[in-house]
Design goal:
Number of helices: 8
Strand content: 5-15%
Distance between the termini: 30 Å
Low-confidence stretches: none
Radius of gyration: 17 Å
Strand order of the largest sheet: 2-3-1-4-5
Number of strands: 5
Structural class: alpha/beta
Shape: globular
Order of helices and strands: EHEHHEHEHHHEH
Mean pLDDT: 91
């Protein structure tokens, strides 16, 4: 199946949608929006993965396997243990391929705002002090910088792999293309879905 762009019609009604992108690309925002538009269930992968004190939850893999058994859902394509399971069940993959400077600006602002507001995230966790960007090699800002290219490598591997014939892959570069896709192909897919149940 060819790689689709922001104006290309979706080849089938999306029912199990993954959103790929580096930290700060807007995966959760878009996955939630897709779920709302298409009437799908949505769960944030971070909420399944992170336990108290940022420790990985032992139930993570089981929760992911339970989630993908649903008929209609959207979520983020992330975490090494979850990606193969999610991909096996998905019918659509949306790739947020934003420039590095865009995602770094977004993730920096988001991290700072969450820290300054002491915003509770998942299972009681809050962002660590901002100074830890200099002391923690795995800090989210450092991770976003060094992992930026990996999403593209993973998506290109999908396009060459066993799921390529059945999986619709949409590449969106920049917020303008995201908005174009949401107001165009995604909206029309949602309208087609509403017509099919009338």
């Amino acid at each position: 199946m060819p790689l689709l762009g922001p104006a290309d019609e979706l080849p089938h009604p999306p029912r199990r949608v993954l959103v790929a992108g580096t930290s700060g690309a807007g995966k959760s925002t878009l996955a939630s929006s897709v779920a709302d538009a298409l009437g799908l269930s949505y769960v944030e992968m971070d909420s399944l993965f992170h336990g108290p004190q940022w420790t990985p939850r032992a139930e993570f893999e089981d929760d992911v396997r339970r989630f993908v058994k649903g008929d209609a859902w959207a979520t983020e394509w992330q975490y090494r243990l979850a990606r193969p399971v999610l991909l096996e069940h998905a019918d659509t993959l949306v790739w947020l391929d934003h420039p590095r400077h865009v995602v770094m600006r977004r993730v920096t602002v988001r991290t700072a705002v969450r820290r300054l507001r002491r915003q509770e995230l998942w299972n009681g966790n809050v962002e660590p002090p901002l100074r830890t960007v200099f002391t923690d090699p795995e800090h989210l800002l450092r991770w976003a910088w060094k992992s930026h290219a990996r999403t593209g490598e993973r998506v290109r591997a999908v396009l060459r792999g066993e799921h390529a014939d059945r999986l619709a892959v949409v590449r969106l570069r920049g917020q303008r293309e995201v908005d174009q896709w949401r107001s165009g192909p995604l909206r029309r897919a949602a309208e087609r879905g509403e017509e099919s149940v009338r």
